[in-house]
Amino acid sequence: MALPTVTSAQDAAKGEQVFKQCMTCHRIGPDAKNLVGPALTGVIGRQSGTAPGFAYSALNKAAGDNGLVWSDYLVLAYLPDPNAFLKKFLTDKGKPDLVTGSTKMAFKLADEQQRKDVIAYINKFSEKK
Questions:
Q1: What's phi and psi for 114, nearest 5 deg?
Q2: Which residues 6+ apart lie within 8 Å of 121 measured at CB?
Q3: Could you tell me the sign of the dihedral formed by the alpha carbons of 16, 17, 18, 22, in that order?
Q4: In the chain, N or C: fewer CB atoms in 10 Å?
Q5: CA angle 80, 52, 22 (to 5 degrees)
Q6: How far is residue 34's CA from residue 36's CA, in Å, rounded to a whole number?
Q7: How many CB atoms are closer than 10 A to CB 28?
Q8: pLDDT band for position 10 (50/70/90)?
């Protein structure tokens, strides 16, 4: 089954503005460092819970260990409610026993267009796989 793609109606310049909300916890770019959240350079195509030097929640690591690799579509689905997304991912993978605790990411980005724009911006710093 093919997953729907994030449409081309996205704007990286607008996404850069939206990303300013994310900068409380995240950085992106060649010199980005982990803060409260992991650096997001290269996040698209990366297994969840594997950014070097970041201490992830058990929930996030379990999702990565069970096959979560970030794509445009999955980031789009994650941002409105990160906790619910990870719990559903693990439950859908048949791993409800791993649905414990919560992700460290409390921020939610409900607006779909803002999510698409921020993904376009993040993609400027990711190698698509």
A1: -65, -40
A2: 12, 13, 15, 16, 18, 19, 28
A3: positive
A4: N
A5: 30
A6: 7
A7: 20
A8: confident
User: How many of the other CB atoms lie within 10 Å of CB of 33?
Assistant: 11
Token code pair at residue 40: 């997001």
Q: And the tokens for 38?
A: 């992991």
DSSP-assigned states of every residue in the chain: -PPPPPPS---HHHHHHHHHHHTTT---STT---SSS---TT-TTSBTT--TT----HHHHHHHHTT-B--HHHHHHHTT-HHHHHHHHHHHTT-GGG--S--S-------HHHHHHHHHHHHTT----
Q: Model confidence over 82-111: pLDDT tens digits?
A: 999 999 999 999 999 999 999 999 899 999
